[in-house]
Amino acid sequence: MTAAKASPRRSRAPEAAAVFALLAACFAMLLLRLEVLRKGYELSALRETLIGLEQHNRALKLEVAKLSSTERLRALAAKYGMAAPAPAQTVVAP
To answer: Does residue 86 fall inside a structural domain?
Structure first.
């Protein structure tokens, strides 16, 4: 018998385990990157929603300021025949 035929056959289990571990790590990194990308899109959409809501809030504040202006309220009061109360018509609550 020759020396080449007499050598025991090596097991490939450690190499296969290393390849499997490397593939699992790559797959895990891919999933992590996809999740980061998905969260980035979600964050971008939320920022756009926030900008829209802030603009709507500014418009509503402007409308409140217009509707509650003293000049407008005085004009509406005069239109409906309202006047400031006389001193005898006011009551101070205790």
So the answer is: no
